[in-house]
Design goal:
This protein has 427 residues and is an alpha+beta fold. The chain is built from 15 helices and 14 strands. Helices cover 37% and strands 18% of the residues.
Length: 427
């Protein structure tokens, strides 16, 4: 059994750049801020949903299984089943993909699928030596044992480890994500100026989308506990210029690296939800879908070149439908790093790469820049890891409708050496 599956509606919070400390929202706070206005504008009640699925990577201790906590805070009922998924940068898309497959197979009719992340709340972690010392103190019997254990204390044992830094480092290759982008920049000959030019354009495109009101209805204001309203993605730099970007130093491979803070995605907090529904649910509730979910694909590759995940996942998905580059009207490719996006574009134009690794007769084709990330991306928006895959699918659906286009692909690279992709058609 295979049924049509629709993306009915969706909403997200503004993406808020992490600055000097924990931001105003936890992961569940963000999910609730995005979910409330989305659910309120639907004609059906909150008991109409069969399931809630939420992507989240940096789950905090007070919010285990944030999907369930968010569902309860959203008033979806004590009997609402909800679970959390995690596949690093693809988590928000994984929630949609799981919903898509359940509905396609006929076991569910309507699912709330989202992603949330508060990277500013990533923990500081004690070092292994400190943990072992605490364990020794707990085992100590009597004052003498405690005194001996205390005598082994060294101040450097308690220097905290930044959890986010370790989380963005691949445990197999010991390369952080920025270093994998440097590998791709070297492999495909991407220079610093080209990467900076791409980053500048990302900021300009997002600034234009905000000015023109193109994100209205997609981005919902978030209100913190102090009564402050957060209405816009706040990492955008409308005045971004090549001169300014050129002054920034390489972040990962000094002094000659191509990846800088200016041409990388921003560390950010944010949440996004979409409503995924069957044809029966659409008719029952009188809904008007944004798009039909046609297909999805996941791929895996060497973690040192994880940034090519979009190429490895999107290409087989597109080609098995008898489509080529020219048949895709819009692309949302998550901007982990400018060099990473540019490497994907270069790989799709490389005859040898496409023959040897994708099994094509030649190059897949040149992705027209006018079709790619038309309203900016993670370089200007930020990349809340568990959320981004959801956001790019939602924004692709909205952009297809706004621009009167037919078909689009949302895709991302995934830390650890994976990639995800989803094919949409305008409803």
């Amino acid at each position: 059994m295979s049924r049509p599956v629709y993306l009915v509606d969706g909403a997200r919070t503004p993406f808020l750049k992490a600055r000097t400390g924990p931001g105003p929202f936890t992961p569940v706070d963000l999910a609730v801020q995005a979910g409330r206005p989305l659910l309120m504008r639907q004609p059906m009640g909150r008991d109409a949903y069969d399931l809630v699925i939420l992507g989240c990577v940096n789950v905090i201790a007070d919010e285990m299984n944030p999907a369930r906590v968010a569902a309860l805070r959203l008033g979806m009922g004590d009997d609402q089943v909800a679970f959390t998924v995690q596949i690093n940068c693809g988590s928000g898309m994984q929630s949609i993909d799981t919903a898509y497959r359940y509905i396609r197979e006929g076991t569910h009719d309507m699912i709330l699928a989202g992603g949330t992340e508060a990277l500013s709340h990533a923990p500081l972690v004690y070092r292994k030596e400190a943990v072992e010392w605490y364990s020794g103190m707990a085992r100590a019997k009597g004052p003498m044992d405690q005194a001996q254990a205390f005598a082994q204390v060294r101040p450097d044992m308690f220097k905290p480890v930044i959890g986010l830094e370790r989380g963005l480092t691949d445990p197999i290759t010991e390369l952080n994500m920025g270093q994998t982008a440097e590998v791709l920049a070297h492999r495909f000959g991407i220079d610093r100026k080209t990467a900076d030019a791409y980053a500048m354009e990302s900021h300009h495109r997002l600034a234009r989308a905000q000015k023109e009101g193109w994100l209205k209805g997609e981005v919902m204001p978030a209100f913190d506990r102090d009564g402050n309203a957060h209405e816009h993605d706040d990492g955008v730099r409308p005045d971004s210029s090549l001169d300014h970007l050129a002054k920034l130093k390489p972040a990962f491979e000094k002094p000659y690296g191509k990846v800088t803070p200016g041409n990388s995605s921003q560390i950010t907090d944010g949440a996004s939800w979409v409503i995924v529904a069957s044809e029966e649910a659409v008719e029952k509730h009188g809904l008007t879908p944004l798009a039909r979910i046609v297909d999805s694909e996941w791929a895996a590759l060497d973690p040192t070149i994880m940034g090519l995940g979009p190429v490895m996942s999107a290409t087989p998905m597109v080609t098995r439908h008898g489509l080529g580059e020219a048949d895709i009207d819009l692309w949302e490719l998550n901007e982990a790093f400018a060099a990473q996006v540019l490497a994907c574009i270069a790989a799709w134009q490389d005859d040898d790469f496409c023959r040897d690794l994708l099994g094509l007769d030649g190059a897949f084709g040149r992705i027209d820049r006018d079709k790619l990330n038309v309203d900016g991306g993670a370089i200007s928006l930020g990349h809340p890891v568990g959320t981004s895959g959801n956001r790019i699918v939602l924004h692709l659906a909205n952009a297809l409708k706004r621009m009167g286009k037919k078909r689009g692909v949302a895709t991302e690279c995934i830390g650890g050496g994976q990639g995800g992709a989803m094919l949409l058609e305008a409803a």
